[in-house]
Design goal:
Layout: E1 4-6, E2 13-21, H1 23-26, E3 33-46, E4 49-63, E5 70-85, E6 98-101, E7 107-109, H2 111-119, H3 143-158
Parallel strand pairs: 5-6
Antiparallel strand pairs: 1-7, 2-3, 3-4, 4-5
């Protein structure tokens, strides 16, 4: 199905669209996001150009790098796309956020762009937030618990 914007039905000027999407529509694996994603599109259309500012919010499921338990992490990400009408004499555009479209196209598909933005929200270090006392907000364990495990493991490695 995907998320497509019908260029022909848009009036010139500024418009806002609020969309709800899910993992299946974006082609993400099942169980990656909780419930649905809220997508806000700020569109600005002129005769030969469409500017889209995209803001995506939702909750993703991650596996903690310390305890391997699944936890939820809220995220918000935003990006901008510019669709420029293609002419016969136009040179190729080498910008990631600028796309060309044919004057005969009725819609533009932004599904892949939203999917990639959601995937890029996954942090390299997957840890739940910490409480003010330094314990994990998800499993409740304190940093000292993990510190002791790491020290024991490194001591065992020295015996070899």
């Amino acid at each position: 199905m995907g998320i497509k914007i019908n260029i022909g039905s848009l009036n010139d000027g500024s418009q806002t669209l609020d969309i709800t999407s899910d993992a299946k529509e974006l082609g993400l694996q099942e169980g990656f996001i909780k419930d649905s994603l809220d997508i806000k599109l700020d569109l600005f259309k002129t005769t030969h150009q469409l500017d889209i500012k995209v803001n995506v919010t939702g909750i993703i499921f991650l596996e903690c790098d310390r305890c391997l338990e699944k936890f939820e992490k809220a995220f918000t990400t935003s990006f901008e796309l510019v669709f420029v009408q293609q002419s016969l004499r136009e040179e190729a555009i080498n910008e990631d956020y600028i796309r060309t479209y044919s004057p005969h196209m009725k819609s533009v598909d932004i599904t892949t762009d939203i999917k990639e933005a959601v995937i890029l929200t996954v942090p390299m270090k997957k840890l739940p937030d910490e409480k003010p006392d330094g314990s994990c907000s998800w499993c409740g364990r304190e940093k000292d618990f993990w510190k002791d495990i790491l020290i024991e493991k490194s001591d065992d490695d020295d015996d070899d």
